[in-house]
Amino acid sequence: MNIVVLGAGAWGTALAVGAAAQDGEFRQVTLWARDAQQAEDMRTGRENRRYLPGVTLPPAISVADGALDASAPFLNQADLIVIGTPMSGLRGMLQTLAAHPTPVAWLCKGFEAPQGGESMHGLLGHEVRAQVAPRLKAGVLSGPSFAQEVAKGRPTALVAASEHASVRDMLVAAFHSPMLRIYANDDIVGVEVGGAVKNLLAIATGLCDGLDLGLNARAALVTRGLAEMTRLGVALGARADTFMGLSGLGDLVLTATGDLSRNRRVGQLLAKGMNLSEAVDSLGHVAEGVYSARTVVQRARLLGLDMPISEAVVALLEGRLRPAQAVAALMARDPKDEGL
Ligand SMILES: NC(=O)c1ccc[n+]([C@@H]2O[C@H](COP(=O)([O-])OP(=O)(O)OC[C@H]3O[C@@H](n4cnc5c(N)ncnc54)[C@H](O)[C@@H]3O)[C@@H](O)[C@H]2O)c1
Ligand SMILES: O=P(O)(O)OC[C@H](O)CO
């Protein structure tokens, strides 16, 4: 099987390693980086020192770079093309691949930043695809997964979501292995809402832990955050049970509690008094929740939904509330019934 991964950040590299390390079947993996210097460094050192240090690139990985052209031979030879960029790179990649017959999957989790001004709202990956590449057979690979653990072969379960069975099947064939279980799901709306909203909630729990508010408070945020995620997803057309799965509850638990999370780290740093741009710059990696949060709230408001935790996170990121004020605002809300 021939797999191409476009984007050599932490997660694209980890999945390239996961696919290339499989025994018993011929695998050729091409890892494309937009930065020629980074690509040369990976070729010579057999390591992605910038984004995934300490992990050796297996021989089955070849590294490509240069301007990405839809007619590049390595793209035409692929059985599966995986887009490993952040949400900010997805639209351009899908435009480039729009006429390709090969199945495509993206890895990014979030809402794209609004295109065309602040009054517009951002889109999920499948909505961007519908706009720019409607004929492309595509889907998303999501679920609880820190790149460093996958690259080291630690047990992980993911979900492959697409409306096309052929894309789900191709993702399972490409990545399912003894250490990496891939479940299939046809609810791409639910899977994408889960991946986007859990990032914002991880900022909230990072803040909660950074302020030392306690484990009770964190459990409350995770549980009521799951209710917000489900509320938004169902209103956008998802199935409620998807939020009990890997891309919903699973990824929320991982990201909201795991110290490898960059989104959680942003919340912890804000709690310590760092400003947002310093916190983001200190990561060296993307934290999608920072860029998606406003769209989560915007879309919830358009649908008439109440999402108080998400509202508090946006107020905090925009500097309208300080950390302690955000907590006070959440606790001061009127009593209500528990349900969704
Ligand atoms: N790191 C993880 O553990 C992990 C796990 C699951 C999902 N994700 C998601 O995967 C996506 C990528 O995360 P990451 O951790 O690999 O990010 P990262 O910050 O480690 O790397 C991002 C990479 O994308 C490249 N890039 C950015 N814009 C690009 C563009 N327009 N064209 C080409 N390349 C571009 C950068 O040069 C960099 O190599 C995010 O949406 C993230 O939420 C990450
Ligand atoms: O480090 P984060 O917060 O971007 O989270 C990484 C993955 O999405 C966890 O599943």
UniProtKB/TrEMBL annotation:
Annotated active site: K198 (proton acceptor)
Pathway linked to the protein: Membrane lipid metabolism; glycerophospholipid metabolism
Superkingdom, natural source: Bacteria
Domain Glycerol-3-phosphate dehydrogenase NAD-dependent C-terminal, chain residue ranges per copy: 187-327
TM region positions: none
Positions annotated to bind sn-glycerol 3-phosphate: K109, G143, S145, K198, D251, S261, R262, N263
Entry annotated with the keyword Cytoplasm: yes
EC number: 1.1.1.94
InterPro entries assigned to the protein according to its UniProt record, in alphabetical order: 6-PGluconate_DH-like_C_sf (IPR008927), 6PGD_dom2 (IPR013328), G3P_DH_NAD-dep (IPR006168), G3P_DH_NAD-dep_C (IPR006109), G3P_DH_NAD-dep_N (IPR011128), NAD(P)-bd_dom_sf (IPR036291)
Localization (cell): Cytoplasm
Domain Glycerol-3-phosphate dehydrogenase NAD-dependent N-terminal: 3-166
Binding residue positions for NADPH: W11, R34, Y51, K109, A147, R262, V286, E288
Enzyme class: oxidoreductase
GO molecular function, one term: glycerol-3-phosphate dehydrogenase [NAD(P)+] activity
Catalytic activity as recorded in UniProt: sn-glycerol 3-phosphate + NADP(+) = dihydroxyacetone phosphate + NADPH + H(+); sn-glycerol 3-phosphate + NAD(+) = dihydroxyacetone phosphate + NADH + H(+)
Keywords noted in UniProt: Cytoplasm, Lipid biosynthesis, Lipid metabolism, NAD, NADP, Nucleotide-binding, Oxidoreductase, Phospholipid biosynthesis, Phospholipid metabolism
NCBIfam families found in the cross-reference section: PRK00094.1-2 (NF000940), PRK00094.1-4 (NF000942)
Protein family per UniProt: Belongs to the NAD-dependent glycerol-3-phosphate dehydrogenase family.
Function, as annotated: Catalyzes the reduction of the glycolytic intermediate dihydroxyacetone phosphate (DHAP) to sn-glycerol 3-phosphate (G3P), the key precursor for phospholipid synthesis.
Name of protein: Glycerol-3-phosphate dehydrogenase [NAD(P)+]
Gene name in the database record: gpsA
